[in-house]
Design a protein that fits this description.
By secondary structure, this protein is α+β, with helices and mostly antiparallel strands. The chain is built from ten helices and six strands, in the order E-H-H-E-E-H-E-H-H-H-H-E-H-H-E-H. It starts with 22 loop residues before the first strand and ends in a 7-residue tail after the last helix.
């Protein structure tokens, strides 16, 4: 098409390509979900339907974007990780973030009736914000994931105790808040056990650990040589041919996507799934 005299305005667009060779994390978070949760009467402290819906939307995002290696979700947020070699959208931040946010939101709304058949959505409709952050090393990326999972644990222990005091202890919100001020994890465990007979360790894993979404390949046994991966070309050192990259991409697109509630702070999760970080 011929250049028009208006076309110079394109030069006002700023490049926003993310640093090469770094792990990209796009984290999305529900806007005003405290209010949203009240409007749709989410069960407190954890509405299982709402978590399942978040997970289903995240799984759909992962199947539409095979470049995503792993995702982690808690409450109204989800973190999506792109491999450091990812070149999708030339690593343009706004493209990556907006595509994830809009794909996630579309599925959240599309799948809503499956999880909340009795309460149809009405405006204002749910929406999400998003940001992209680059992590230069595997250690930084793992620390990021650990940070989110620790957050999940801290919030869930607090919320579980807070709502037990209210729902089973008949306490008011303010009194419960006052009682929990300055308490440590051990104190909350003790309150749960002595007052309500709740052993926090027996709470559902999905609430305690959050949700990890990833492609399921064959697990590596702890402490063994990864022969399966080697036979599969996974253990091949660096520099893949373009052909191999294409094969890997197709293989990723076909792999089953699973949702689990595992510890991602300890080494075991990563050691047994070396394809996630290699
Ligand atoms: P912002 O727009 O700043 O993110 P927010 O109200 O969404 O505001 P968050 O810090 O994101 O604040 O907190 C999420 C809120 O949604 C919390 O109040 C949390 O209790 C609620 N929530 C999210 N998921 C669930 C769930 N599955 N069950 C019960 N409550 C939930
Ligand atoms: P990208 O993901 O790079 O944006 P794209 O296929 O969406 O790829 P665009 O340059 O955004 O490419 O072009 C939008 C496409 O959608 C065009 O092919 C256009 O013909 C089609 N399209 C959009 N709106 C309409 C419409 N109302 N009627 C017919 N075709 C439409
Ligand atoms: Mg927020
Ligand atoms: Mg929020
Ligand atoms: Mg949140
Ligand atoms: Mg388009």
């Amino acid at each position: 098409m011929a250049n028009s005299k208006f076309e110079y305005v394109r030069n006002f667009e700023q490049p926003d390509n993310l640093l090469p060779n770094t792990w990209i994390v796009v984290r999305i978070d529900g806007r005003g979900f405290t209010k949203f949760a009240n409007k749709y009467a989410f069960e407190k402290p954890n509405d299982r339907r709402a978590l399942d819906l978040m997970n289903a939307a995240a799984k759909a995002v992962m199947s539409e974007l095979p470049e995503i290696t792993i995702a982690y979700g808690i409450s109204d947020e989800y973190s999506f990780v792109f491999h450091k070699s990812c070149v999708l959208f030339e690593r343009r931040s706004s493209k990556l973030v907006t595509t994830i946010v809009s794909t996630f939101t579309s599925y959240y709304i599309y799948l809503w009736p499956t999880y909340f058949p009795e309460t149809p959505l009405s405006p204002p409709l749910p929406s999400f914000d998003g940001r992209a952050v680059c992590y230069p090393s595997v250690q930084n990326l793992r620390d990021y994931m650990s940070w989110r999972q620790v957050d999940c644990h801290i919030n869930n222990l607090y919320n579980t105790t807070f709502w037990a005091l209210i729902q089973q202890g008949g306490m008011g919100n303010l009194d419960a808040e006052e009682l929990l001020k300055g308490t440590y994890a051990a104190d909350k465990n003790e309150i749960l056990f002595s007052k309500f007979g709740i052993n926090y360790n027996n709470e559902p894993e999905i609430y305690k650990k959050g949700s990890v979404v990833f492609r399921a390949y064959e697990l590596v046994e702890p402490g063994t040589h990864n022969a399966a991966a080697e036979a599969d070309g996974l253990a091949e050192p660096v520099q893949q041919s373009k052909n191999q990259t294409e094969i890997d991409k197709k293989r990723r697109a076909k792999a089953r996507i699973v949702i689990e509630h595992l510890d991602i702070i300890k080494d075991e999760f990563w050691d047994r799934r070396p394809w996630l970080l290699s």
